[in-house]
Amino acid sequence: MPDYHDDLRLAHVLADAADAATMDRFKALDLKVETKPDMTPVSEADKAAEELIRGHLHRARPRDAILGEEYGIEGTGPRRWVIDPIDGTKNYVRGVPVWATLISLMEAGENGFQPVVGVVSAPALSRRWWAAKGAGAYSGRSLTSATRLHVSKVDTIADSSFAFSSLTGWEEQGRLDGFMDLTRACWRTRGYGDFWPYMMVAEGSVDICAEPELSLWDMAANAIIVQEAGGRFTDLDGVDGPGGTNGAASNGLLHDELLGYLNQRY
Predict the structure, then answer these.
(1) Residue 119's pLDDT is what?
(2) Most exposed among 88, 150, 156, 201, judged by the fewest C-beta atoms under 10 Å?
(3) For the segment 26-69, what is each residue's pLDDT rounded down to a tens digit?
(4) Residue 141, class by beta-carbon neighbours within 10 Å (0-12 exposed, 13-18 middle, 19+ buried)?
């Protein structure tokens, strides 16, 4: 199996640079915020963080392609860095500390591009999570000061903790009834939102989570961290990996039942 240690170290360097840039503008009274064509907000910090990461990658990995939320795709080839400079921009612009920079390296394979490295860095929470293919998932202050992550062993929906972002999107997909049935069947539900539920699945503090509308940059880093922690990440149709337009993550034991509820098979 390939060794992705150097790529993981680079991803941490990228995250360090992004953290410094985003924290410098967090809660700034003069923060500039615009509305994109899809009616979602983008701040000057989103753009600056992505530009910073792209600049580092141009120097360190000039042959690799880059896909980012704010500036799209550039380059071709079997290796592609996928960047969400601020996942949780709505939180960021309102001063809520639940936001993160998501960085992933994806490689082309038999089943298309799949993540092989992922880093999720949430500086306002003083938290960071990461994983590399075949090397496990971790959380901590640095590569040398970290704790290995493992998903939970909860094996019944009635005992599970379910996390989600919001109710938006479920009704448009005809999945709202199944979503509501799932919330009633679980032991506990919480709307933590964005990257955080996936990291809690990887840590074992949440058992299942799902979102109805996502892009690749929302999922790539989360997916490999969940998978390397022993869990499962699919789209709502059950296709493994972050290649769909929505996402579901679990400890693996509850995944089929999770999808069953959201597809109204229960």
Answers:
(1) 98
(2) 156
(3) 988 778 888 877 767 788 888 999 999 999 999 999 999 999 99
(4) exposed
Give dist(CA 216, CA 242) in Å, integer.
6
The C-alpha atoms of residue 181 and residue 154 are separated, in whole angstroms, by 19
246: left (phi over 0), alpha (psi -120 to 50) or beta: beta
Question: pLDDT, tens digit, for every residue of 173-199?
Answer: 889 999 999 999 999 999 988 999 999
* Rounded (10°) CA dihedral 118, 122, 123, 126: -100
CB-based contacts of 60: which residues, under 8 Å, 6+ apart? 10
Distance CA 235, CA 93 (A): 29
Nearest CA to 242 among 213, 261, 215? Answer: 215
How far apart, in whole angstroms, are the C-alpha atoms of residue 137 and residue 152?
A: 14
CA-CA distance, 25 to 92, in Å (whole number)?
9
Average pLDDT value for residue range 233-240: 96
Amino acid at 29: L
